[in-house]
Amino acid sequence: MRIINSKLFIKYKKKNIGNTKLLRAIDSLLSEITNNNWKDRLELKNTGIDADCVHNDGFFFFNIDSHRTMILIEFEDEDATAVWIGSHKDYELTFKNNKNTILVPRHNRYRLVDRKLSP
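Request: output the structure for the sequence above.
Response:
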């Protein structure tokens, strides 16, 4: 798979430059993504990666558990688009600790919506 918007990973890694364990975990996840071409959620889950599907359009949260870092990626065809990356605290502030509140594409930008209120 091709990773789109990888600058989010570069920026987050620079912010956490001293945490080599986290940097290796992110690199490992990126390697898993680029070396696979998952056709569905089951294939993704069978790899053992901690990922939750948060939207039927192919949005997944990846949790790097030991670091409480969360990554939101949208999968479409053979592309994986990095949408958001941050700490669990950032996740709570941005998404209100609610998987129903996610980012959805709109005019080549992403916006927050609450799935209970919007389709």
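The beta strands are 2-4, 51-55, 59-64, 69-76, 79-87, 101-106, 109-114.
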